[in-house]
Design goal:
Bound molecules: arginine
CATH superfamily of the largest domain: L-arginine/glycine Amidinotransferase, Chain A
Number of strands: 20
Largest sheet: 6 strands, mixed
Number of helices: 14
Radius of gyration: 21 Å
CATH class of the largest domain: Alpha Beta
CATH topology of the largest domain: L-arginine/glycine Amidinotransferase, Chain A
CATH architecture of the largest domain: 5-stranded Propeller
Length: 398
């Protein structure tokens, strides 16, 4: 298990098939829950099934987050931890907490998975409990929040080398996701004794900001989600465990359109990225390397243009850029619709949303085979094939 690049042949991936948590979205809560619309859930599931099928057709093993979670919840300590953390919200009162504890304890592992992912709404339990909180809260208040962004499995854990990093998510609506990925990696037999780095108690780092440029070279975007302190801690973890010799820290605009580095740049070959041209010329990188052994210091080089700094760290002549779209307006439209957010299955073979005609044409001109998937509903959460996948095993590059 593990991955040292973004483009080595993909063997195993973790996805999350959208489910009842998406039925929780309403026009009043979708902004807080980080969706730009109200997806048609059945169609989103069809689109997602076709995505998973396209991966299986190319011999990728697809694991589902909820199945792993249900299996992990067979362990009594996993159930205990899951229930404790789900009920730690300070908006619950004691009688409600003890009612919910009993309710979750009685649930089968499958039901518990549903409660943990789809959440619990006040009107679903109010008639069973007379607590002050349930009496006063509106019907549609969540006692346990739903997690619609679980769909984006890339953000809540990321493999670097032979370790898995449990990330630390910045947005309140997503924080609980890493409690679930941590349960999976701690309790599922498939990951027994798996070594981990980072963790949800550390400074913010989201997987969408982590790009494995080459073995030992990791780029980390810093912007709306990953913070400078998160990048610092993550770099230290990578150096300490020998997983990287250079970390490129890449500031990106703190805006929804560019929430993660992978919304403006992903890799499609060992030396090719698809990149948003409207930022390509301003994107800079600070190369960070470990200081003298034992000093605990990091050495931070002055900023350089991203493509230059990346090529240097990767020890190649040029990191080639393929543009999103054909002109600035098409580029802006297709960047918004995750045209940059491709998932490489092998060098020069990548999954992309079919709607981004201009970008896909560019990719093909550059010799990249594009596996097109539909994403009209999936895309309403603002994430593409790369955000929706957590590569667990990729072959090393030859
Ligand atoms: N790696 C990514 N670009 N993930 C996209 C995440 C989208 C999600 N709705 C959020 O705002 O967090």
């Amino acid at each position: 298990m593990g991955a040292t690049s973004e483009v080595g042949r993909l063997r195993t991936v973790m996805l999350h098939r959208p489910g009842p948590e998406l039925q929780r979205l309403t026009p009043r809560n979708n902004d807080r829950l980080l969706f730009d619309g109200i997806p048609w859930v059945a169609r989103a599931q069809e689109e997602h099934d076709a995505f998973a099928e396209a991966l299986r057709d190319r011999d990728v093993e697809v694991l589902y987050l909820t199945e792993l979670l249900t299996e992990a919840l067979a362990a009594p300590e996993a159930r205990e931890t899951a229930i404790d953390t789900a009920l730690s919200d300070l908006d619950l009162d004691e009688s409600l907490r003890s009612f919910l504890r009993g309710h979750l304890h009685d649930a089968t592992p499958e039901e518990l998975t549903t409660h943990l992912t789809a959440g619990i709404r006040n009107d679903e339990v109010r008639r069973f409990t007379g607590s002050l909180v349930t009496t006063l809260l509106p019907d549609d208040a969540f006692l346990v929040d739903p997690l619609p962004n679980l769909l984006f499995t890339r953000d809540s854990s990321v493999w670097v080398g032979d370790r898995v990093a449990i990330t630390s998510l910045a947005m309140p609506a997503r924080k609980r996701e890493t409690q679930l990925t941590e349960l999976i990696y701690s309790h599922h037999p498939r990951f027994a004794d798996q070594q981990r780095i980072h963790g949800h108690h550390f400074e913010y780092v989201e997987g969408g900001d982590v790009l494995l440029l080459a073995p030992g070279v990791v780029a980390v975007g810093v912007g709306e989600r990953t913070t400078p302190a998160g990048a610092d801690r993550f770099a230290r973890h990578l150096f300490a465990s020998g997983l990287a010799s250079t970390v490129l820290v890449v500031p990106i605009a703190q805006e929804r359109a560019t929430m993660h580095l992978d919304t403006v740049c992903t890799m499609v070959d060992v030396d090719k990225v698809v990149m948003y041209p409207n930022v390509a010329h301003t994107l800079a990188a600070y190369a960070v390397t470990p200081g003298d052994p034992g000093s605990g210091e990091l050495v931070v080089a002055p900023p350089e243009p991203f493509l230059v700094a990346a090529a240097k760290a990767m020890q190649i002549d040029t990191l080639h850029q393929i543009d999103t779209g054909l002109d600035p307006v098409t580029a802006e439209r297709e960047q918004w619709d995750d045209g940059n957010n491709t998932l490489a299955l092998a060098p020069r073979l990548a999954v992309a949303y079919e709607r981004n005609d201009g970008t896909n044409a560019r990719l093909e001109e550059a010799g990249i085979e594009v596996v097109r998937i539909a994403g009209s509903e999936l895309g309403s959460g603002r994430g593409g094939p790369r955000c929706m996948s957590c590569p667990i095993a990729r072959d090393p590059l030859p």
